Amino acid sequence: MKRRTFIYTGIALAALLGIGDLFLLKYESKWKKHPFLYPLILSGILDEEWLRIIGKSYRAMWPAENSKTNLMNAIKSDIHTIDEKTYDGANEAFEIEKTVERDFKSERFIVIKGWVLSETEARQCALLSLS
Asked: The whole model's pTM is what?
């Protein structure tokens, strides 16, 4: 391989990787601003369409939680029951994931469309389906 070809290939590869990183950063920031709307662990398995389908099913099963305010209050109340002394509102995504883990440990899970979800994850999906 000639030196010129090697340099041009390296520049093109670096440019492609840089553009890819820009797309990933844009995608991440969309959900980092709204951690209540997006179940982080579940999103690694399912796409957004399925998360919305699960959310609609949850809202049909529990009509009392069929509004954004009721769902937000339910999720926030679960977070605050972890430990109010160590709760950090700036890191809500981490707190939500701890709540999901606690839900599974205390056997607070729901089966929707064949998926076993914690109550918090199901509420996040329902909130996503309303947005």
From this structure: 0.68
